[in-house]
Amino acid sequence: MIRIGIIGIGFMGMAHYEGAKKLKGAKVTAIATRDSKKLAGDWSSIEGNFGPRGGQEDLSKVKQYKDYHDLLADPEIDLVDICLPTEMHEKVALDSIRAGKHTLVEKPIAIDLKAANKMVNAAKKAGVQFMVAQVLPFFPEFQFAVECVRSNKYGKLLAAHFRRVMAPPKWSENIEDFQKLGGWGIDLHIHDNHLISLMCGVPRKVTSRGIENQGYVNHVHTVYDYDEPNLAISCVSGGIAARGLEFAHGYELYFEDATVLFGAGTMGVGKKKEWVVSQPLTLITQKGRLQHPKLKGGDAWCAAFTLELQAAVNALESGEEPEALSGALARDALKICYAEAKSIQTGRSIPVK
Ligand SMILES: NC(=O)C1=CN([C@@H]2O[C@H](COP(=O)(O)OP(=O)(O)OC[C@H]3O[C@@H](n4cnc5c(N)ncnc54)[C@H](OP(=O)(O)O)[C@@H]3O)[C@@H](O)[C@H]2O)C=CC1
Ligand SMILES: O=C1CO[C@H](CO)[C@@H](O)[C@@H]1O
């Protein structure tokens, strides 16, 4: 049984805790939070841009730490799961790696590329697994998309367009400070850069247009450049949507033999807020048939987090790094974000290096 300790009980800490309830061969045995109410199981202050608000949790079988260092010192923790604000990822991940713990840290790996490299290298040196919780490939529709591309089941991928947009959120202390967030061009858009790299490889160049704020990207449109000259991949991401569009993501994929469409998001505010599937996952064949493929993973709001954590747990058991959670791939996705920012600033195509 792999014993997981979660550090930071906010939107993601709760998503991981909830998702972990369905893990096979692992469970959360400890949490670290500074908040006495949360330690007492009152998680009603927690909210995010998908899933329900927090409620009352029974923590009677979970060890509780106020200071994360005590969780790191606990010999009965196998996997440390860091769900803290991005600006803390480097310090706490390095502390965890130095404590000899296998470590999973929320995305983005870091804001700073040097910090990202430091984390990847420290884990290599310490001989522990270092994984980044890039959850998008575990969302059933996106998992389906990756599988379609990799299997060539519908022929070669010719073109793809991705979308990830949101209104600026309000629930987290750190969300308005772009220095801490890396702007939406990192915080939000890194999901697409990671997925696109997983699907098609890291692009060699990017051409981007967009809007900056506080020196970071607020909204971006990017065309990704590959050795294959006819592969057309693009994405739009950012945090400038109207308040009633809390979050939306989707894609269109054009294969030789089929087109695949998907789009969904959280729309409305307050009690009117709902998850709207604007374009149910639809596979359209050359013969004109419309199919709604059966997806793996279940309907629970945190199902993707269960799959993500299961991949991390399986990695500890097999000793093999899970590709979708690879620290190096998460670092490469961050490199793309910086190339995009430079492309916006200069108006030129920028190599990803
Ligand atoms: N994969 C995904 O889809 C998403 C990923 N994220 C990523 O997850 C990370 C956390 O974001 P999110 O959960 O939304 O943020 P929240 O603000 O909701 O939660 C972060 C938690 O970290 C703890 N914390 C905050 N500041 C400090 C501090 N100075 N010292 C110690 N602990 C602190 C708090 O927990 P406590 O009160 O328990 O101490 C807080 O609740 C970010 O890196 C973000 O990019 C975010 C949203 C979605
Ligand atoms: O996918 C996401 C949804 O929005 C969040 C912002 O609050 C991001 O941090 C996140 O990665």
From TrEMBL:
Protein name: 1,5-anhydro-D-fructose reductase
EC main group: oxidoreductase
Gene3D superfamilies: Dihydrodipicolinate Reductase, domain 2, NAD(P)-binding Rossmann-like Domain
EC number, UniProt record: 1.1.1.292
Protease keyword on record: no
All residue ranges annotated as the Gfo/Idh/MocA-like oxidoreductase N-terminal domain in the record: 2-133
Organism from which the protein derives: Gimesia aquarii
Pfam families named among the record's database cross-references: GFO_IDH_MocA (PF01408)
GO molecular function: 1,5-anhydro-D-fructose reductase (1,5-anhydro-D-mannitol-forming) activity; nucleotide binding
Gene: afr_4
